[in-house]
UniProtKB/TrEMBL annotation:
Residues 2-182 form the CYTH domain. It holds the Pfam family CYTH. GO terms for molecular function: pyrophosphatase activity. This is CYTH domain-containing protein. It comes from the Eukaryota. Gene3D superfamilies: Hypothetical Protein Pfu-838710-001 (2.40.320.10). Transmembrane segments: none annotated. InterPro entries: CYTH-like_dom_sf, CYTH_domain.
Amino acid sequence: MEAELKLALPSRAALDALLEHLGASDRKGILQSSIFYDTPSETIRGEGCNARLRHALHRDNGTESWVVTVKGPKLKQKEFKADSIAVRPEEEEEVTKSVADAIRAGTMSPLDALPQTELIKSIKAACGQEALRPREMFENTRVPVKHTLQTSKGVCELTLELDETRFEFEGAREAHWECEVELPPERASELAGPVQAALQEMLHSVCKAQCEPAPGKLSRYRKFVKRAKKSSL
């Protein structure tokens, strides 16, 4: 299970101001390249799920990693008392470069790189005989910063993930900036509201703007592609 809170930042300048405020020691960050897989008929999307292969390059030391992630349908948000949070089932596994290469080459399904849990089995059943193919791709640079946040529920030790995400499609380009934080899923209903309120207060002070909840990157990318296609007509 994953519980992730996202708030949009208004600009690159706001991101830089936040990095300065937090005293980020390494601003080179992690270059993440994400490829999302689905069937030609978009079965996985239709199930409210997504399947991703992510490559991460740590710019400070050159180390690399490959992670396969499948996320299930989002749970209803009312109990979490924060409109910036998404809570959903998740299966995630770090894989070797050879496995990642096989997935990219189309000789291995990303679903086969994960433990065969009920979530994975249900997605496989929905896909049937249709093979998964790469459908969407984008990059982001992530700077993780540890931060102690004072909330109405007390002090929370968090890792803030500060992202610049770059979308490209047929010559169109767009950049997005955001602050993400993962909460313990078992405490999401208790902490989501207080953490969002305290984080928004801090961001408003530093960025001089109201930082609203941000949708997931994949949904924003899909909207970007839709706009790009419309503008090219």
